[in-house]
Amino acid sequence: MPQTPVPRQPAPALDLPLIIGTRWRLSEQSPERFTQVVVYRGLHCPICQSYLKTLKRHYGAFVDKGVETICVSMEGRERVQQAYDDWGLDDIPMGYDLDRAQAEDWGLYMSSGISDAEPEVFAEPAVFWIRPGGELYLANISNVPFARPDLGQLLDAVDYVTENDYPARGDLAA
């Protein structure tokens, strides 16, 4: 059973291959403000396509505000590469082969495919922010494709959080 990660605690480990042929490790990230991990269901999901295209429109602004972003999926390299190409996600790092153990560590909901177009098992969407020291700040985990945080609001929140030293909330969940 997945365990929801707790804000103000160390984020779970995350180590994935990228479609550009390198590895991405959360422990090696050094953003100015946050590392943003966006989990998406996969190539089969039109809502993911729309969400990641919106992310692409905001991507430069996130970078300018000191937020490094990666998109991750349980799908393999070929399907993640196809999503990257077909959806026009230039510049966004794309991780693949998120395994069940990692998905459970991050508290992700997982679903069984209900059609031939869907993978046998895939993670449902989530967005996480991790502080430069590895502490979890934000966890937005969904069990359905149509409930995700508004990326424009998140972008606006970066400055507010930083300028007001706004603490992570929900740390009493443990």
TrEMBL record:
Residues 5-163 form the Thioredoxin domain. It comes from the Bacteria. Gene3D superfamilies: Glutaredoxin. InterPro entries: AhpC/TSA (IPR000866), Thioredoxin-like_sf (IPR036249), Thioredoxin_domain (IPR013766). Pfam families: AhpC-TSA. PROSITE patterns: THIOREDOXIN_2. GO terms for molecular function: antioxidant activity; oxidoreductase activity. This is AhpC/TSA family protein. It comes from Palleronia sediminis.
